Amino acid sequence: MAAISQCKDKRRHIRNRTHLAEVLRRTLPIGIIVALLLTQHWESAKFAQSTTHPAPLSTTHQPAASSQWPSFAI
Fold it and tell me: Where is the region Disordered (predicted)?
C-alpha cells in the first residue's frame, strides 16, 4: 500500500514540476518584454527629467551638522 502511495506522490510531483515549467515557458517571455519596456520608460523619464531640470552648477544645500544627526546625552 505504501508503494502505491509513493508512486502517486511521485507522479503528482512530476505533474507539478511539468505544470510549473509550462507556466514559466508561457509567462517568461511576457515578463522579459514588460521588464524591458519598463526599463526603457524609466531611462527615458530619467533623461527627460535631467534635461528639463538641470542640476545647479553650485553645490547643493546641505543641512547644518546639528540638524543632520541627533545628539545624545551621555
Answer: 49-74
Tell whether 15 is covered by a domain: yes
Residue 74 lies in a domain: no
Residue 22 backbone dihedrals phi, psi, to 5 degrees:
-65, -45
Q: Positive or negative, the Cα torsion across 25, 27, 30, 35? A: negative
pTM more than 0.70: no
Grid coordinates of 66:
546639528
Number of domains in the chain: 1
Residues 25-46 have pLDDT tens digits of: 889 999 999 999 999 888 887 7
Query: Does residue 61 sit within a domain?
Result: no
